[in-house]
Amino acid sequence: MFKVHNKLELNKMNETLIIGMFQQNRKLSGLAAELDQLLDGQITELMKEGDLSTKQKSITKLHTLGRLGIKRIFFVGLGKELTFADGREVFGKLFKTVQQAKLQDVTIALDTFVTEDFDRSEAAYTLAEAFALSTYKIVDYKQKSNEPEKNIETINVVIDGEELDEIKTALEVGYAFGNGTNSARTLTNMPPNLLTATELANYAIELANKYQFEYEVLEKEEMERLGMGALLAVNQGSEEPPKMIVLKYQGKDDWTDVIGLVGKGITYDTGGYSIKPKAGIVGMKTDMGGAAAVLGAMEIIGEIRPEQNVVAVIPSTDNMISGKAFKPDDVIVSLSGKTIEVLNTDAEGRLALADGITYAKHHGANYLVDVSTLTGGVIIALGNDTTGAMTNNEQLFEQVLQASHECVEPIWRLPITEKDKKRVRNSKMADLNNSPGREGHAIMAGTFLGEFAENTPWVHLDIAGTATTSKETDLGPSGATGVMARTLAAFVERFETGE
Ligand code: BES
Ligand code: MN
Ligand code: ZN
User: Do 128 and 246 fall within a single domain?
Assistant: First the structure.
């Protein structure tokens, strides 16, 4: 896929040459000037005529008509400055264009994309991540056409220097982050008849085998024995058996300072007896987006192998209706021992996650991050571009926030007050209720989960608005976004206990 070279040989190897061009006031410099000279000043001419723009994200294709060893050149406009976030967009647009042109072998002059704030390694990381993200295709079930697929096969990255290993590593890491995100997208887009809890568990086991993770998949009988009454209640109406999926990655000598990643794995959410309206049900196959993010992060972690300990926990079932299903007014006993009065069977995610969080603690989690498509409320509060966050620990939150910045996956914090806690604890029948009403209901869901995190530092990420998108972008198609796979992995990679 990626090949790194330390010298650009203009008369060899280049099917397609890609160079970045910043807006410059005066004359062309560097490689652009060199090419201009070889082409008798034609690049300068094109720019004068307005046929070649250096505006950020503009891409101009130029055929050399056999004048150089290179068949064609793509000039990529970079504007005046290039930030890390801009870089992703630019490379995304570039690879989308290259893919559409069905070109299979490209050569990129990496140094032409570099600035003071965007160094070579960052550019290489970004290039590889954007390549994976932007060329991602939805796995569909359409009959295949006869047209042969043409995908990019070789990306030659050329630098003017000797730091080939450094660049190789940056490319590999960026590619791993992109691919982990794509895996999360694929899982989230899968139809619910094909991605059952059993299949999700099988996928996790495959991942474990590939990356030598320890794993455990609890069956219904074991859950009953352990008393996972909250997850089991959600599963009660289903023909599909529930699974509690656990993956362990040990990157330290001892099983200490363990980070627990808990992902909501509801493979389909009908709402149960508090049934959703028919328009609201469509799309609820994505209610395992949190689980997908955790598995995507684990894939990245398996690739980059940081010196950290991670336990991933995914409570999984669908939320269905039958004569056996749980009902509003039921009182259930969670794994923690806390009892819950069910007021709304559509507030099922917090029930499944309650047992997931407790079980992560049983496996030694000292820090917790849960990710879940938890509430429609968070979409009303923050829209579709920002993930909602809640926490009981400033330091841990800061680290998750930092990672989210680095990965350009915005999060925004919502509060949890003592009054909020009172509302989730308000029940005549049980310790907690699962649905205290519409006011601030994203906060209610987070507050409920906080009752199970207890004193363990914890961050909650509600991705109901960000797990899917209705718009295609330069970094991927509409549908599942794979959001938070990267942020979780980056958070794990850089995690510090603060002691
Ligand atoms: N899975 C939904 C949340 C959701 C809504 C995800 C829209 C993605 C898009 C969750 O289980 C749910 O039904 N939440 C309810 C909670 C309510 C009953 C307290 C909601 O947000 O309406
Ligand atoms: Mn629901
Ligand atoms: Zn749900």
Answer: no
